[in-house]
Amino acid sequence: MASSAITDVMVATISASQLPALLSQPNAVLIDVRDSDEWAAGHLDGARSVPLDQLRADPDRELPAGATLVFICARGARSLTAAKLAERLGRDTVYSVDGGTLACSRAGLPLISQRAAA
Predict the structure, then answer these.
(1) CB 17: neighbour CB atoms within 10 A?
(2) Do the domain assignments include residue 118?
(3) Structural domains of the chain, count
(4) Strands 28-32 and 68-72
(5) If pLDDT is split at 50, 70 and 90, which confidence band does 9 have?
(6) What's residue 4's pLDDT?
(7) For residue 3, which phi and psi values (nearest 5 degrees)?
(8) Residue 12 located in a structural domain
(9) I want to staple 93 with a disulfide (CB 3.0 to 4.6 A). Which of 10, 14, 68, 83 is the partner?
(10) Is residue 48 in some structural domain?
(11) Is 73 a catalytic residue?
(12) What is the pLDDT of residues 50-74, one digit of tens each?
């Protein structure tokens, strides 16, 4: 069976309920690709904020080598885009959270809000 470059990029998606187990792995990195306003409104504890535009501009700088990369956004579209980018760059273990922070909130995972600093 022949394969093409398009079918070679198959991102694994995980549900919000599967996320805590994946993040318990020592080399897992949660990357939130939403913009800074969305991040401030609420994000998962331990997530790293790297807006999608910033990731696209300098992916080698933003993606740690050898890590299990887990991307999240509000609903799942931007994180899927980010995960596909990471896979095209040769990252081996890449996931996108299906349903994003909305699904995480619905699953009972706590989101942390950032208050404006004085």
Answers:
(1) 13
(2) no
(3) 1
(4) parallel
(5) low
(6) 38
(7) -125, 155
(8) no
(9) 68
(10) yes
(11) yes
(12) 999 999 999 988 999 899 999 999 9
Is residue 95 within 8 A of residue 83, CB to CB? The reply is yes
pLDDT at position 115 = 59
pTM higher than 0.70, yes or no? Answer: yes
Given the residues 73, 82, 83, 97, the one annotated as active site? 73
| Cα 70–chain centre separation | 4
What SS3 string covers 26-39? CCEEEEECCCHHHH
Phi, psi (degrees; rounded to nearest 5) at 108: 90, 10
Burial degree of 75 (CB within 10 A; 0-12, 13-18, 19+)? middle
75, 100 contact by CB (below 8 A): yes
Q: Can you tell me the mean pLDDT for 31-49? A: 96
Distance separating alpha carbons of residues 72 and 52, to the nearest angstrom = 10
Which pLDDT belongs to residue 60? 87
